[in-house]
Amino acid sequence: MTARRVSLVLFAALAVAGYLRTRQPILTWGATPAEAAGPLPGDALLAAADGISTRAIDIDAPPHDVWPWLAQMGPAPRGGAYTYDWIENLLGLDMHSVDNVLPEFQHPHVGDKIELGSNRMRLELVEPQRTLAWRSEDRNWGWTFVLADRAGRTRLISRNRFRLPSRAARIGMLPMEPASLVMERRMLREISACLNGSRGATRIAAAENQAKQRVNEQRALPQDAMRLARSATQGRSAPMHGRRQRGP
Hints:
This protein has a six-stranded antiparallel sheet with strand order 1-6-5-4-3-2, with helices on one face. About 50% of the residues lie in helices and about 20% in strands. Residues about 200-210 and about 240-248 have low confidence and may be disordered. The protein has six helices and six strands. The protein has a domain at about 55-200: START domain (Alpha-D-Glucose-1,6-Bisphosphate, Chain A, domain 4, 2-Layer Sandwich). By secondary structure, the chain is α+β, with helices and mostly antiparallel strands.
């Protein structure tokens, strides 16, 4: 083995060791050790999982206020995934995250289906204001949301369970894990933002600015019309001052 190959092998080994050291925080962002290791509703939908991520966030709102945002998740015309839509749509997922509750998607039922790219997801478990669990039709992916009431606040837990039937699938999942953290962390934070009003406040501020601009434009119209009329009047009267009067 040449020195170059030895260096490459050592670099790869160090890279793998470094990732394995940081892998657990990537897979369990926001979750306590007990939440990450403990059972959750929906686990039985994919009992023999080769990969598991458990991420969580505290939301300053009760579960009955958080639930609608989960119930309406999904591709258009549903409410989106509250993450980076432009990335989702590069993958053809047709996600358009909303910042309001959609009444027509507030009654999820077991058997409801959505498509996430090549994955056709079926709703398998619905406990209003407590649990919402999806599973792919090939039974290789389960995604569960659990809401826990904490004295009027909500502990929202998102768990993904994967079956990776081949070595290629297991290797391919490794680079997907940090990417999923970026997307899911954004999702959890945006759901929280929807509840505390920051997204709504931004939308309202933008609408107010547009309304002010329209009012200013409407106020400017009469002034512009008066200036035009004044200019036209002056234009008509100007030749009269320079016109010579004929004698008798």
